[in-house]
């Protein structure tokens, strides 16, 4: 659910203090744990280090991010590809096909040099 319009957007006070009076070009990475904080127009151009539970991921705030939450741009789960034995077989066949294609491409070039 969205936040009530009567209450207004939630922006972390400490985060606003850290960027107040500073220029985005001179300020480095601003570390924060406030994933629930909404991105305000004043934050555009700043680089935030948003904590994902393990490390701070860099998020460069752009104009089209205004209104979203900081946590949306710092995923907490790492995607591990699907598959198993079947997937490995498919990848191996693909790699072999690439190698044979590369060898076939080299062969005409070698023949041209001999002539």
UniProtKB/TrEMBL annotation:
GO terms for cellular component: cytoplasm; small ribosomal subunit. It comes from the Bacteria. Pfam families: Ribosomal_S19. GO terms for molecular function: rRNA binding; structural constituent of ribosome. Residues 99-115 have a biased composition (Low complexity). Residues 81-115 are annotated as: Disordered. Coiled coil: none annotated. Keywords: Ribonucleoprotein, Ribosomal protein, RNA-binding, rRNA-binding. Residues 86-98 have a biased composition (Basic and acidic residues). GO terms for biological process: ribosomal small subunit assembly; translation. Gene3D superfamilies: 30s Ribosomal Protein S19, Chain A. Belongs to the universal ribosomal protein uS19 family. Protein S19 forms a complex with S13 that binds strongly to the 16S ribosomal RNA. This is Small ribosomal subunit protein uS19. It comes from Candidatus Yonathbacteria bacterium RIFCSPHIGHO2_01_FULL_51_10.
